[in-house]
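In the previous chapter we treated chains in isolation. Here, by contrast, the input contains two separate entities that must be folded as one system, with a combined length of 634 residues.
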Amino acid sequence: MSEQLQGALRDIADDIRARPGRAGLAFLALGVGMTALTVLLAVLGGLEARAKRIVEELGAQVFAITQASASNPQQNSTRLNASRAELLATHLGSDAVSGIQFFENVSAGGDRQVRVIATDENLLNIRPWVISEGRFIDKHDMHNRERVAVVDAMIAREWNWRVGDTVQLREIPFRLIGLLSIGADALESESTERALSPGERAVFVPRSLPPYWQFTTPAPDLPLDALYVRAPAGQPMERAVALARELLSQPDQRLEQLSFLTPDVLLQRLRKLQDTIRFTAGSIALLCLILGGTTLMSLLVANVRERVTEIGLRRALGATARDIAGLFVLEAILLTGAAALVGALGAGAILWLARGRFPIDLRLDASVLFTPLLVATLLGAAFSFWPARAAARISPAEALRNE
Amino acid sequence: MRNDASAGPVLSMRGVWKSFATPRGPVHVLRGVDLEIEPGSFVVITGPSGSGKSTFLNLASLLDTPTQGVVQFAGRVTSTLNEKELCELRKERLGMVFQKFCLLTHRSALENVLFRFRYLAVPHTEAQKSSERALARVGLAAQADQPTRLMSGGEMQRVAIARAVAQRPDLLVADEPTGNLDRAAAESVMEVFRDLNADGITILLVTHNESLLRFATRHLVCADGRLKDRA
């Protein structure tokens, strides 16, 4: 560290020692502002990360089409079904559409209950789930109506199921062919739409199977609970959604009460929350920072007034006007920087300790801790500008006459 | 980098006027001052209040510039220098002592003397040695670590003198250095000035106290904005 900088730091420490009350007040106000800013950044960062995770969990370029329950369950013609999935696949790509059908509370032997999801081989092309062991349902399984099952890796671990085992679903034997890592926590907690998340204890089976666990005879065209669609690469999702909407709205389709769940729709609630937090916490942080900044400014103005003789002495000893201005600016930046550091670290530590009790995720990375430092530097420089300029403009002869 | 000004006067003024604008028109505080201060001299300026002594000292200390005329310090015409060059001259070649000492009262005597080097590119160890030597020179080596707020007026002024001479100046300017001191303290301070002058430091001192004239090698009287030599 240069001797000039050491000298400046010593001057500043000396000044703070001489006027601890004022410096403490400014430090406190700025510290509160910086704490509020850190909390705001951590919460907004957490929400942003959550939004990103929701999109990731849904899948890149993916949207879901669901339909409200039918008033007349027998009216299959007005429900989403395999033929509608094929219609979309014809226009959007044969592997870009996957249909699912849920069967809740299916007995899996003993008192075990699972959620059976009847689907097709395209599901993993669309949803970002990963096979951790074995394989997923393929065309062959679909075509031959194989009694195979893929289960969530978590329940396989819990119930000690292994690939190759035979598991019972409604007392029908199924061969376990794969384990799936799903991890769709954010999506599950963000949307009440059950079609978006397989939930815990999910078992996937080919949807071409006659559902012995529910029907005694195979239905020609079973209704689907949801369709997952991946927009073609390079094509805006809005266009694919518009096309799907148009196809399913044709008079001959007679489909009603469809919901198109795109990432934008899913994030609507989150964005509203983000905006609210940004506005409320942001206003508080801004207010605290302005309060801290003006306190700092008044501290510096008072300092300049009290230190006129010292300014004269410094000028007599060869300090330039720039040296004098720099002294006050540096003092302000150090004070705000220290307040920012303490505020950010304090807030960071508290948030980290209490992270489990927060209803939302918090982001506590370097950017959350360094942004207040950057803001502090700018704030210190901005609010010290006028006092520093006034100090620099004091004539040395006038300053020494003040002696 | 020092000019080779040792051959000529340390400070010279030719036809120097200093005026201040007021609502009732300009006030001429200095009216055509002509002066040369030779190296090694001990110049004492006396004069009534309002005669222009402080204004003259500000010009001599390069803290102010004349309205008219030429001020030459160490061979350089000050009106041709920019602010940075004036600051360079002040920090390297001028020492100043003030009536109320201008000390940083939260700091020790040594730290106050070290403050002389605050804007000089002198290594700390060298500055420390020079400061200790300067304190010893004014008889305060033993009180180096004492906070100046606990010192007597005479001691404080001696710390201020040590600060002014820690970096050997071409000219030591003192504005009423004994104005706040009792007689004994004033005497001890003047003894210090005399020792410094004996060591070759040029001194320019302003005072109301005519009893201090016995220390001077030259006496100037300031009256009506003019400076005149008094035998």
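Residues 1-5 of chain B have pLDDT under 50 and may be disordered. DSSP finds six helices and ten strands in chain B. Compare these points with the single-chain example from earlier in the chapter.
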